[in-house]
Amino acid sequence: MSNANLEMGSHTETMVEGADCARKAAMALLAQASLQEMQQFWENWENKPSVETLRGPETGLVMVRGRIGGGGAAFNLGEATVTRATVRLGNGAVGHAYALGRSSKKVRLAAVFDAIWQGQDCRQSVEDKVLAPIARRLNKDLEGKRAETAATKVDFFTMVRGDD
Amino acid sequence: MYVAVKGGEAAIRNAHKLLADRRRGDRSVPAIGLDQIVEQLALAVDRVMAEGSLYDTELAALAVKQARGDMIEAIFLVRAYRTTLPRFGYTKPVETSQMAIERRISATFKDLPGGQLLGPTFDYTHRLLDPELAEDAPVDVPDQRVEAPEHMPRVMDILDQDGMIEADGIMPEGVQTGDLTREPLTFPLERDLRLQALARGDEGFLLGLAYSTQRGYARSHPFAGEIRIGEVEVELEVAELDFPLTLGRIRLTECQMVNQFKGSSKQSPQFTRGYGLVFGQSERKSMSMALCDRALRARELGEDITAAAQDEEFVISHSDNVQSTGFVEHLKLPHYVDFQAELDLVRRMRAEHESQNNQISEAAE
Fold this sequence. Notes:
The complex is a heterodimer of chains A (164) and B (365).
Chain A: H1 3-8, H2 18-31, H3 35-44, E1 51-67, E2 74-89, E3 94-100, H4 104-118, H5 120-150
Helix pairs in contact in A: 2-4, 3-4, 4-5
Chain B: H1 9-24, H2 34-40, H3 42-52, E1 54-55, H4 57-66, H5 71-82, E2 87-93, E3 100-105, H6 155-159, H7 191-199, H8 203-214, E4 222-236, E5 245-259, E6 272-279, H9 283-295, H10 298-301, H11 312-318, H12 321-329, H13 336-364
Antiparallel strand pairs in B: 3-4, 4-5, 5-6
Helix pairs in contact in B: 2-3, 2-4, 3-4, 3-5, 4-5, 7-9, 8-9
């Protein structure tokens, strides 16, 4: 996809397959981690690689889009703050991270873990020690909220008036 | 001759110092933290994000604090801040059908699949002030009901069978999505730009207009087809990667308003729709937006334009509270020279008026 297209915001539907799909899922979890989590994971990480920051961390905006009627054509709803970073490890692996908000430290560490994840030998460690705990927390939050919401479901009953 | 007058620097400096003091208030009272504002004044934060048109809870909380709780001032601060940041791109459209639901109700169908989920609502409260809240009394944890995740179809899709209701809005082929932060508005607008303007429009202004449509100005017989509040994923395509990135989740409120339509020569009678989508938990705003969106479709649907709420240029030109407050409040800035000129003019008019009166009375004598 060309830069011009991105600037105009004209997205083509893309199918994400295989390794891309796994990396997309990993990056989605890293984006939703908290700063405390990322700092903890980095502190506990053994054999820390050398890290060179190639870009950022820098904060900017994305224009969030909605759909007319919920499923129709796109319209611009409003902006959100986003922070991004790109790093290179000693082994040459380049990692990227983008996340909502303005936490530079978190996003830089997310880019580091994205880079580490790309190395076949370290991938499982990242999955187990970083991604799994984030996923567990997100799921727990989601399940908790869902159960709290479910408790507010209206159970209708019918009142029969008068008896013959 | 124009003579520039300077002055007031010391007065302005001291006024701002005084403002900082009054904002802090009584020093024996603890200062309010941004986390407290985010957590405990969450709907104020949501309104600032929606009308400031910038999703960032911490920035919105800072704005509320800095503005001493003046919402429009806070919105102004957020709008000013956003101009300092670069734009990384446009996200993919968020999919509200995939929302992690926190509240979802329909006033049109009682037994809809997924159920009526009230969520954290003010509805059905008695609106009695609660003295317990004046103290820091402990609050019970909410009840939970664990059940298998249930699919929550959009009410619009249920109604869509048999063509009883119009489909989601589409735009003409090849039209770029309009962005009012990039191009100045020129009327008439397409629906995408109207929705962008309404989404950041003043809640009170849109509420008043929405109410006017219910009272008979541009009557449109609305029903709240579905309101849902919850979080959606935000995805962005970037040049350096071949797949769209998940940036995180944001909370939105969506309102699907269902309206009667008697049909036209081209269109058989069916239900039409108004759409509202707002940052945060903002039910009143999303409902008002949906009612205004529907009223503003009068031209498209071939309806008579008889009321203010249907007048696109009137509504959209005056819905932005930062613009409105800028123009109204600029009146308090020095207009000494303008007023001097007016004063002079009125004096001359009065003199002329008097001499005319004198001539008339002389002629009468």
